[in-house]
Structure formats: C-alpha cells, structure tokens
Design a protein that fits this description.
The chain is mostly helical. The chain has helices spanning 9-12, 16-25, 31-37, 39-58, 68-82, 87-110, 117-127, 129-164, 198-207, 236-271, 273-283, 292-320, 324-362, 371-378, 380-399, 407-437, 458-494, 498-503, 510-527, 534-556, 566-593, 613-618, 623-632, 635-688; strands at 170-174, 224-229, 232-235, 507-508, 558-559. The radius of gyration is 33 Å and the shape is globular. It is found in: Membrane.
C-alpha cells in the first residue's frame, strides 16, 4: 500500500480549531503530554483501555455500527476468544446472554398486555404522534385511577366488607361517642324508604343522595374504629388517612417520573432556534404516518410551523424597532385587556360562589313532588362551572389577538388562562362549601365546631359535590359529540350551503381535550378523600371516553391545522396535570388538618381533626420510638435537614451549570470541526489548482 507522509506541524497549526484553542489558553500548552508521560497516568490510561476493551468484547456483534460482513467477523472473533476462557467465565458469559435473551422475550410478550396497544398504534399511523400523545395520556390516567382505586378499596373498603360477612373470624368495633354533645351525633341520611318510583333511583344516581348516601361510596359510611381479623387489630382511621396520603404521593412521584423525559426533550428542543429549524427541515417528518390524508396534513403542519417561525422572527424584529409611543400604546392595551380578563374571572368566581350558597340552602328544602326542580337546584354549581369553562376560553381566544404577542406565546398564554379558570373554579366551589361549613354565627356551631345543622356530615356533602361534578362532566363529554359533532358532520357532508361549508368540520383540539380530562382528574384527586370509591368511577369514565374520542376523531372531527409536537405536548400535559395535583393538595390538606371532623359520621368522629389520628397512634408506640418520631417532627431536626437539602440542591445546581458549560464547549467544538473541514477543502482545492 502507498504510505501517506505525515502532515507537517506548521500546516496543522493553521487549522481554525488550533488557533481558537491557542487564543483561549493564551499560548501553546505542553501539560497534557507531560501528564500522559507519567507512570501513574499511563497506568490509569491502560486500565481505562482494558475496561473499555472488556465492555466492547461483552457487547453482541449486532450492536456494532458496522456492515454485515464486519459483524460476522467480530462474532467469529468473539467465539474464538471464549475458547481460551476459564469454565467460570464461560458460564458467567453464557448465563448473562441467556438472562438477557429471556428478559427481552418477556418484555416483548408483556408489550401485548399493554392497554389499547393496537388502537393507539393505529391512531399514531393515521394521525401522527401529536394526537397519539393525547390517547397515551388518557391511558396513563386510566391506569393511575385504577391503582388509586385498588389502594383505597384494599385498605379502606375491603376490611369492612370482610368483617361484615365474618370472613377470617373478623368483627367490627364501632366508634363510641366520647366527650361529644349528643346534638352533634344526629345524622339521618335521606335513604329511600317504602315504595319508591324508578325516577327517584335515577335522581339519586345523578345526585348521590338517597340509596347512594348510605353506601360505601361516601365518607359517612365508614363509622368504624377498628376491624378485628382473628387477634389482629386493624386501625381503620389510620388506614384511611395513610391511604389518602399514599395515593397523593404515588400520583406526585409517578407524574414527576414521566415528566422528566419530556422535560429533557423540551429543553433540548428549545435550547437553540437554529437547531429547531434544522430538526424541522431534516428530521421533522413523522414516519409512523401511513394514511395519505394524514401525510398531507403533516405536510401542511410542517409548512405552518416554518411560517410561524418566520412570522415570529419578523415580529421580534418589529418589536425591536418599536418607538416609545408604540410601546406605550401596546402596553396600555395589554393592561386594559388583562383588566377585562380579571373582571371575567371575578364574575365567574362570584357566580359560582352565589350559586353554591343558594344550592346548599335550598336543595334540601324542596318537596319530593318537585324532585326535578330539586335535582336542578343541586346541579346548579356544576352547570355554572361547566358554562364558565366553555365561555371563558372563547373570550380569551378572542382577546389574545389584540395583545400583539408572538404566535407561540399566544397559544401558551391562552392555555394558561384556560387552565387557571378551570382549576380555580373548583377552588371557588370548595371555598364556598367551606364558608358554609365554617359559618359560625350566633349558636350555629358552638358545640360541634362546624355548622352541624346544615352539614351534620359535611365530608359526605363535599363528596357528593365532587361526585356531581364528575357525573355532569361525563354527561357533557358524551352529549357534545352526540348533539353537536354528529349533526355538524352530517350537514357538512350532505349540504352544499356555502355558510355550512365555511364552518366545516370541528377540529380535534388536543389542548382542549387534555384540559377537559385534567379537570376531571383534579376532581377525582380532591374527592377521593370524601368519596373513597370515586377513583373507580373515574376509571370507568376515562375508559369510555377513550372510545368516544376515538370515534369522534375518526368519524366526526378532523385533526387540528395547528398541531402540537409530541415531545412538547407530553411535557405540557404532565405539567398541567402536576398543577392540578398541587391544587388538590390544598383542599385535602385543609380538610385533614384544619376543619373539625364530623362528630356524626366517618372514622374520625372522636378526633378534633383527621390529622390527630397520627399523634394518637404514635402515643401507643414504645417511649424510645416516640422520642425519635417527635424529634423528627421538631425544629431541632427540621433546621439541619433543611440546611442539608439546600446544600444538596446547590450541589446539583452547580453540577447542572458545569454540564451546561460542557455542552456549550462541545457545541463550539462541533462548529470548529466544521470550520476545519471547510479549511481543508479550500487547501485541497488550492493544491489541485
């Protein structure tokens, strides 16, 4: 073979990367070769090379980025090397390969057990990864609610069922009223008695009253202090509280775990605008698409994204060239529009508050003859909340056009306002209920600590409100496709009127549908403490919604012309879901730690608040364990623990900054390598000339 002469040193020093490194370091450095020449460094490098060679030898040949012939040669070489190994190493390598193969086969078989695997792959093939991310998110909520239901049912409902039927020689120890005024223990659920009409059962099913009020669906059913299974005492109040804290913690950790990957992808995508542009040009196509209509839609969406990028750059240039007069005008207009938005939100909140107070005061005063009117009065808060969730986003979408933001920021701000109005409406409803429960006027709640006349078992009343919100939300989700989407589809298909054709088919808005189910999930998290079986209803609800949305997507609606990228949408979905969970922490925490528990029902009758079951249980432990637990709850432990957490947090912040600097250096290195290539191409061209 012809030997190429080594490149002269002077020529290599002319490379842009060398000149840049020399300027940065202030001259030529000789430290690295000197370090590599020492005995310690040579030993370290040798060990690193041996470890790397061992890892490469352990890798199967198919994992190498080589051609088939080279892979076959590597496989033969690896098989020849194994003949010189000892029996122990041969057995370890063989068992490792067998274990990996078995795990791979089990993983492949378990993929067939994934819920809706074929349906979601079919949706992904027809409509792309953006819409597929919505259905995957819906599947995640179904699994999450099913696990929460298993948790609450196993530790709260099942022990009572076992004890009532005497299984495992179990008995029930009911709560005795200790130091409680007799007037506080009066609670008469409005269960149906005697001959009952069918529509009464239907009304009870919709409102959570009547026969449902005395079932295990609501908090008031669990008036049990302990369940004795043989000789073991099962503390139901403690299990009730710990199960509630467990499902909140499980939801939080699971959402955080799933959102980390989406956050990484979103961070990489938003790191460099030029990189985003290159991704759209060279890697923007979704190869999962097999449907021609979906392919045309993907073409239009890529074109739309590029147009939006150009429009944003043009708008940024326009913003930079604004005069002081134009800035004052646009800022004044934004302040005025935000005042309108705040006024709309205030009107929604005040309406919900007044309607909730009216519903609570008049729902129990209606005669049975006017059962329909009674049902409407009970559902007034749910109707007003649903109406506010429908009208407010439409107004926000109209007003955002006058604020002169970039298209991407317009979408984010509108979604944030919609999220706020949906979740804040639930908070206003709960605030209205608590204001009624804690309405301690003259002699209203003196003996019991709460308004016992209007709310003898206030936890069940809050549970019924959450139950009605979930049922009404489910009815609305089913009614919209049936009474709006299908008639609109028929009119667009069979009517040639220009006005109807101009309206066209309704788009399948991913963000609106996600906010819809996150709203329902927030209701489930809040209501599970007051209605332990509410997660089961949520599981059935989302299971049906999956098929309803699939039919709507395929037959009545069209994909949105402004789609959301799958990576960013997954992170956004989980971020909004996390906001809903954090909102759920507040009412559940206030109910557990602040509001006096009902003295007429529930497992916490003998405690001032639900949280008092924790210190009461700790007092039954040995004295040494008590001192440890109370010490962990004291300031002497909290302050050092907080300082250690701060130190760890600062360490990770510094580590993240160091990684960021390394990423920037690697990016600069890639740029310099591209300049070196251009420099070498020019030199070769000059040499050829």
């Amino acid at each position: 073979e012809e030997l190429h002469p080594a490149a002269p040193v002077d020529f290599l020093q002319e490379l842009p990367s060398y000149q840049s490194a020399r300027r940065r370091r202030g001259g030529t450095q000789r430290r690295r070769p000197a370090l590599l020449g020492t005995a310690g460094s040579r030993g370290t490098v040798a060990r690193a090379l041996q470890q790397e060679e061992g890892e490469l030898a352990a890798r199967p040949a198919r994992e190498y980025p080589e051609c088939i012939a080279e892979k076959r040669r590597l496989r033969d070489s690896q098989q020849a090397d194994t003949e010189h190994l000892s029996r122990w190493k041969k057995w370890r390598r063989t068992s490792s390969k067998s274990l990996k193969k078995a795990l791979s086969e089990v993983k492949g078989l378990s993929s067939y057990l994934v819920l809706w695997r074929h349906d979601i792959h079919s949706i992904e093939g027809k409509f792309g990864t953006g819409i597929q991310s919505y259905f995957s998110f819906l599947r995640f909520l179904v699994v999450l609610n099913f696990i929460i239901f298993i948790l609450m049912f196993s530790f709260v409902t099942l022990p009572i069922i076992i004890s009532k039927y005497g299984i495992f020689n179990s008995t029930i120890s009911y709560i005795s009223s200790k130091n409680i005024d007799n007037i506080c223990t009066i609670y008469e659920p409005s269960g149906n008695k005697g001959l009952v009409y069918f529509y009464t059962y239907l009304k009870d099913l919709l409102s959570g009253t009547g026969f449902l009020e005395v079932t295990s669906l609501f908090y008031g059913y669990y008036t049990t202090d302990a369940v004795w299974i043989s000789t073991m005492r099962y503390n139901l109040p403690l299990a009730y509280l710990l199960a509630t804290l467990a499902y909140l913690a499980l939801s939080f950790l699971w959402i955080i775990k799933r959102s980390v990957e989406g956050f990484k992808q979103n961070l990489v995508h938003d790191a460099d605008p030029f990189q985003s542009y290159c991704n759209k040009i060279f890697a923007g196509w979704d190869f999962c698409i097999t449907d021609p209509n979906a392919a045309r839609l993907k073409h239009r969406s890529l074109q739309y994204e590029l147009q939006m990028d150009l429009q944003e750059e043009k708008l940024k240039q326009k913003i930079a060239e604004r005069t002081m007069k134009e800035k004052l005008r646009i800022y004044s207009l934004r302040i005025f529009i935000n005042i309108i938005v705040i006024s709309i939100l205030s009107g929604c909140f005040y309406s919900i508050y007044r309607v909730t107070v009216f519903s609570q005061e008049h729902s129990s005063n209606t005669d049975n003859a006017n059962s329909l009117v009674n049902l409407l009065v009970q559902y007034l808060p749910s109707m007003v909340i649903t109406l506010a969730n429908f009208i407010a986003p439409l107004i926000f979408s109209f007003l955002i056009g006058f604020e002169d933001y970039t298209p991407a920021f317009e979408i984010k701000l509108t979604l944030l306002r919609c999220v706020f109005v949906r979740l804040a409406n639930i908070g206003v409803l709960l605030f209205s209920l608590w204001s009624q429960i804690s309405d301690c006027g003259p002699d209203k709640c003196k003996p019991c600590g709460y308004n016992y006349k209007l709310y003898p078992c206030w936890e069940s009343d809050v549970g019924r409100e959450m139950y009605k919100l979930m049922i009404f939300d489910f009815i609305v989700i089913l009614a919209v496709p049936l009474f709006l989407d299908f008639p609109r589809k028929l009119l667009v298909t069979h009517c040639s009127c220009k006005l109807i054709q101009w309206f066209g088919q309704q788009e399948f808005g991913i963000s609106d549908n996600v906010l819809e189910i996150i709203y329902g999930q927030t209701i489930c998290w809040i209501g599970a403490f007051f209605s332990p079986l509410l997660p089961a209803i949520a599981t059935i609800k989302y299971f049906i919604i999956f098929y309803v949305k699939k039919i709507v997507l395929i037959h009545t609606r069209k994909p949105a012309a402004r789609p959301i990228r799958a990576s960013s949408s997954n992170f956004f979905f989980l971020l909004v879901l996390l906001i809903g969970l954090l909102l759920a922490f507040i009412p559940v925490g206030v109910s557990i730690a602040s509001i006096p528990s009902s003295k007429a029902c529930g497992p916490f009758r003998n405690f001032d608040t639900s949280w008092e079951v924790i210190p009461d249980t700790i007092l039954q432990f040995p004295s040494g364990l008590q001192q440890i637990l109370f010490g962990m709850a004291s300031e002497a432990f909290a302050v050092p623990f907080f300082m250690i957490v701060c130190i760890v947090m600062f360490y990770f912040i510094a580590l993240a900054r160091a990684h960021k600097r390394v990423v920037e250096q690697l990016r600069e290195q890639l740029i310099l390598e591209s300049r070196d290539k251009m420099f070498l191409i020019r030199k070769i061209a000059e040499a050829q000339r």
